[in-house]
Amino acid sequence: MAVDLTIDELGARGDGVARTAGRTIYVEGALPGEAVSAEVTGDRGRLLAIARPSPERTEPICSYFDCCGGCAAQHMAVPLYTHWKTAAIATALARAGIGTPLAPLVDAAGSGRRRVILHARTHGGRASVGFMAPRSHDLIAIDQCPVLTPALARAPGVARQLAQLLARFDKPLDLQLTATLTGLDVDIRGLGRKAPGEQLDAARLALVEAAERLDLARLALHGDILVERRPPLLAMGRATVVPPPGGFLQATEAGEQILADLVLAGLGEARGAGKGRNRPLRVADCFCGCGPFTLRLAEQAEVHAVEIDAAALAALDRARRGAPGLKPIRLEQRDLFRRPLLPPEIDRFDALVFDPPRAGAEALVRQMAASRLPLAVAVSCDAASFARDAAILAAAGFVARCIVPVDQFRYSAHTEIVGVFVREKAKR
Ligand SMILES: C[S@@+](CC[C@H](N)C(=O)[O-])C[C@H]1O[C@@H](n2cnc3c(N)ncnc32)[C@H](O)[C@@H]1O
User: Fold this and answer.
1) Dihedral angle sign, alpha carbons of residues 201, 165, 130, 170
2) How far apart are alpha carbons 324 and 320 in whole angstroms?
3) Can you tell me which atom of ligand 1 is nearest the CA of 335?
4) Ligand 1, closest atom to CA 338?
5) Does one domain contain both 27 and 89?
6) Measured from the CA of 356, which atom of ligand 1 is nearest?
């Protein structure tokens, strides 16, 4: 049914939200203040026409924007976009009782995303690759994606050629492509480990040949390396890292550097507090991944790096051995959800950095609250769990000195947050 609506505000995912006659309707692609006509089903409206466009509407940079679910916000002018990106964080912090004003949004898109996961589907023996339509399992096949770094310009073509080699299995695939200093690193998922043996052997051989033809640095299937023609290298501070296939990586090179700079700047508070200390700073880096913060922190501090993923820790281990002049780094494989560091362990550190997955770090933060830790730096990709963890720290006497939103996922609904928390009331 076509309905005329006036859009009141933007929702968390970038939809226009209309509140009318006691109902809330989410209209994808509509902006606040716009008068639109939409086909409404339940609480969702499909935008049919815009009778009165917003002055803050802009032309999307991508020709697929109207149908592709990869981006949510190419149609917003910068002031509206910036407000939308920060409002959800500000609201979550206010709800949690954290009064520290949010710093301005830091642009961390840099040259574009250095990693992309493209989906592949087979129809009539032909593979297509792209992203899903919004809230759908329908593939939008793409040839290019302007949010990717130039080194990933050929990602859709490469992914299509690789997926075509697996078309006979007729499985939905995810191909993760990462731009590294030595070329593309590709990991293919979705084939299943139980694919028929002989066919799989032939496919593996074809993939290895394709890696040569496409000049890939490395090609992996379900994380198992099929061929490494060159180690896929990433620079992290003075070190170079070969990340494990499919392991976590910050989305942009600029984003990683900006987050690391903010973490290091936050540690300045620990340095000031420890005047007269005749030993290096001791810092814990929890949820350290393959080490983008650890390796930079170790240029000035002793680091205890904790992470659940053995492959990420092995990559960090190799990187620290190859980097000159770093202070000691201790590695610990540990499930920080089930076995958070405990106060006697935490008390050894001058500062603790934590960068958990979306769920946040509640178990660890509760132990930090019970410890004598003087300084914590939180890096987060989720406003709600960040605010919850910040409130636990605040209740234990920590004060948020600064909270910085960092935009490395430009045009998406995701925003990174860095918070520096200093314990002002000493723990007895
Ligand atoms: C958001 S990533 C951050 C990684 C790293 N700090 C970086 O910037 O690349 C979160 C990390 O937490 C790790 N992780 C997830 N669950 C964990 C757990 N229960 N205990 C410890 N580490 C965990 C993941 O493997 C991942 O490396």
Assistant:
1) negative
2) 8
3) 20
4) 19
5) no
6) 10
Contact predicate 210/221, CB 8 Å = no
CATH code, domain with 192: 2.40.50.1070
Residues making up the annotated binding site for S-adenosyl-L-methionine are 250, 287, 307, 355
ipTM score: 1.00
Helix (H) or strand (E) holding 344: helix 343-346
Q: Say yes or no to pLDDT of 156 above 60.
A: yes
* 3 state SS of 228: strand
Q: What is the pLDDT of residues 71-104, one digit of tens each?
A: 999 999 999 999 999 999 999 999 999 999 999 9
Closest to 427 (Cα-Cα) out of 342, 347, 351 = 347
pTM of the predicted protein model: 0.95
- Answer yes or no: do 95 and 161 share one domain: no
Active site residue 381: yes
Q: Are 173 and 188 spatial neighbours (Cβ–Cβ below 8 Å)? A: yes
Residues 6+ apart with CB under 8 A from 278: none
Give yes or no: residues 276 and 410 share one domain: yes
Q: Ligand 1, atom 4: nearest CA belongs to which residue?
A: 289
User: Which protein residues are within 6 Å of ligand 1, measured from CB?
Assistant: 248, 250, 287-289, 292-293, 307-309, 312, 335-337, 355-357
- Number of domains making up the chain: 3
Encode pLDDT of 247-287 as tens digits: 999 999 999 999 999 999 999 877 655 556 778 999 999 99
One domain for residues 288 and 408? yes
288 lies in the same domain as 199: no
Place of tokens 């201790």: 330
Annotated binding residues, written as ranges, equal 250, 287, 307, 355
**Residue 48 maps to which CATH number?**
2.40.50.140
368 and 255 in a single domain? The answer is yes
Catalytic residue among 145, 288, 381, 402: 381
Domain end (from 173, 203, 233): 233
217 in the same domain as 300: no
Probe residue for ligand 1, chosen from 115, 248, 406 as the CB with the greatest number of ligand atoms within 8 Å: 248
